[in-house]
Amino acid sequence: MTDDIYGKYRPALKAVLADIAARIEAYNEQEKAKNGEMAYEHLIYRIKSSDSMAEKCRRKGLPETSQSALLNIKDAIGIRIVCRFVDDIYLNVRYIKAMAGCRIVQEKDYIKHVKPNGYRSYHMILEFTEPYEDAAGANPGHFFAEIQIRTIAMDSWASLEHQMKYKHDVKNTDIIERELKRCADELAACDVSMQTIRNLICSEQ
Fold it and tell me: Which residues contact 160 (CB under 8 A, 6 or more apart)?
């Protein structure tokens, strides 16, 4: 294996990511032109680093190869869509599902089915058919992307929770976990309130 676990497929991976991001940006502009409001506030995307992907392969007991990274593990391409309101999350889900050449491999709604620690987000694993050779040798190839869609409040909580979770030698973990769950619930209540206010304003127009 080369130093880069993606090997000769990295250019294709970059092109696929650019195409998906462009399509998401396009429907955001479409929504803004149609309704005067954006579908989302922020779009963040990346290709998982070679080192992180190699470590994930090891953790899953897979060989550190391009095939493992691009066929067995399906989050080499990661996209996060951050919205202002809860309803916007489901608007983005509808737009993404309508994309040509896109197949849903897995989706999990952690907003309606909140994780025990308070985590909320909408997760999708998608398969895109693109005009590039994939790790199985097919062309057009099949490439996978993980998309997470959440509100600004959910995103802030998840970022802080992730940061604190990976700190070493943390004491009072039970208290910290309980407080994080409380904060998550309070932020979720704010999201509901903001959505209610938005609905009231829209109903008067």
Answer: none
Distance in angstroms (rounded) separating the CA atoms of residues 108 and 126: 12
Please answer whether residues 143 and 77 qualify as being in contact, where contact means their C-beta atoms are separated by less than 8 angstroms.
yes
Query: Residue 90: how many CB atoms within 10 A of its CB?
Result: 15
CA-nearest of 82, 91, 85, 61 to 73 is 61
Domain that holds residue 187: 158-203
Q: What is residue 99's predicted lDDT score, i.e. its pLDDT?
A: 95
Strands 77-83 and 102-109: unpaired
How open is the CA angle 172-176-179, to the nearest 5 degrees?
A: 140
Specify the number of domains making up the chain. Answer: 2
The amino acid occupying position 52 is: S
Here the tokens at position 59 are 């953790």
User: Where does a domain end: 133, 152, 171?
Assistant: 152
Locate 187 and state its tokens: 């932020």
10-residue stretch averages of pLDDT, the chain, 205 residues long: 85 97 97 94 97 96 96 97 97 96 97 95 97 96 98 93 71 83 94 93 79
Q: What's the pTM value of the predicted model, to 2 decimals? A: 0.91
Q: Is the Cβ–Cβ distance between 132 and 140 less than 8 Å? A: yes
